[in-house]
Design brief:
alpha+beta, 3-stranded antiparallel β-sheet, Dna-directed Rna Polymerase Ii 140kd Polypeptide, Chain: B, Domain 6, about 280 residues, single chain, 5-stranded antiparallel β-sheet, 14 strands
Length: about 280
C-alpha cells in the first residue's frame, strides 16, 4: 500500500502464489527525483553531506578555461577525517579525463602520486591540483587558488522529500486523545521538556498552554466543590451528580488535559482518590 504522502509511477506488477496457494501481488513504484536543498550525497570516501544551496551555473565560480564545478565542498571536511583518498581521486580523475587512460584508484597498488603530479604538469595544470578561479557573480579573480578535480559522488537514500513533515490537525490516539506519533501516521511534532523549558525561560506561558493543552488533548471535567472529587453530568436527569455527595448543583467545570483525567481515573482504579482543589480565575 502507498503511504498517504507517497507518489510515483507504477513500474512493475508481479503476481504469484505463496506456498499456501494465496495470490501474492507486488507493485513497484518509481519516482523521478531532482536534487534539492537537504538531499544527501557522498563521495566514495565517506565524505557525506547535504546540499546547502543550489546556484545557477552562471553564478558559480569558474576556471580559466570556463569549467564550472558541479559541487563545492568545505575544505574543513578533509583534515580531521583524513580522507586522503579523496584528494588522490581528485588528481587521478583529472589526469584520467585529460589523458583518456584508466587510473587504478586502489589504495595499495596503482599509479604513484608523484607520477600523477608529473602527468598533470604535462597537460599544463599545476601539480597540486589547484587552479585560479573567477567569481561567477562579479567576474573578479579569486585571491586564493582552489583545489579542483574529478570525484565520483553518489546520491544517498536520505532525501528531504521523504523526511519533510508538518501537521495542523490530524489523527489522535484512542487512549490518550493526544496526537499520533511519527510521520507515517500523520503525527504531531513533539514538544519536549527542553522546548517547554525555553518557553518558561521566555515567560511565554500563553504559548505554553496553547502547545501543551489547546493543540494536544483539551477536555472538560466536572469537580464537586464540597468533596473535591470528580463528578459527572447525568443527561437523563439533566443534573450534576457527585459519586460521594449525590445530586447537587455546587459543581465546577474545569478544562484539563485528557491525559490528566486519564491519570486520575487510573489512580481511582487503584483505590487512590485525589482532592482537586479549585481556585477562582
Amino acid at each position: 500500500m502507498l503511504r498517504h504522502e507517497e507518489k510515483g509511477i507504477v513500474d512493475t506488477v508481479i503476481m504469484t502464489n505463496t506456498t499456501d496457494d494465496n495470490v501474492f501481488v507486488r507493485v513497484k513504484v518509481r519516482d523521478n527525483r531532482i536534487a534539492e536543498i537537504g538531499d544527501k550525497f557522498a563521495s566514495r570516501h565517506g565524505q557525506k553531506g547535504v546540499i546547502g544551496i543550489l546556484l545557477n551555473q552562471e553564478d558559480m565560480p569558474f576556471t580559466e578555461s570556463g569549467i564550472v564545478p558541479d559541487l563545492i565542498i568545505n575544505p574543513h571536511a578533509i583534515p580531521s577525517r583524513m580522507t586522503i583518498g579523496q584528494l588522490l581521486e581528485s588528481i587521478a580523475g583529472k589526469y584520467a579525463a585529460l589523458s583518456g587512460h584508466i587510473v587504478d584508484g586502489t589504495p595499495f597498488e596503482g599509479v604513484n602520486e608523484k607520477t600523477l603530479r608529473e602527468e598533470l604538469e604535462k597537460y599544463g595544470f599545476k601539480s597540486t591540483g589547484k587552479e585560479i578561479m573567477y567569481n561567477g557573480l562579479t567576474g573578479e579573480k579569486m585571491v586564493a587558488e582552489v583545489f579542483i578535480g574529478i570525484v565520483y559522488y553518489q546520491k544517498l537514500h536520505h532525501m528531504v522529500s521523504d523526511k519533510i513533515h508538518a501537521r495542523a490537525r490530524g489523527p489522535v490516539q484512542i487512549l490518550t486523545r493526544q496526537p499520533t506519533e511519527g510521520r507515517a501516521r500523520e503525527g504531531g511534532l513533539r514538544f519536549g521538556e527542553m522546548e517547554r523549558d525555553c518557553l518558561i525561560a521566555y515567560g511565554a506561558s500563553s504559548i505554553l498552554q496553547d502547545v501543551l493543552l489547546e493543540m494536544s488533548d483539551p477536555t472538560y471535567i466536572y469537580v464537586c466543590k464540597k468533596c473535591y472529587s470528580m463528578a459527572y453530568f447525568d443527561s437523563k436527569k439533566n443534573s450534576f451528580n457527585c459519586h460521594f455527595c449525590g445530586y447537587h448543583q455546587d459543581i465546577a467545570k474545569v478544562k484539563v488535559a485528557y491525559a490528566f483525567k486519564l491519570l486520575l481515573q487510573e489512580l481511582m482504579s487503584m483505590c487512590i482518590i485525589q482532592d482537586l482543589l479549585l481556585k477562582k480565575r
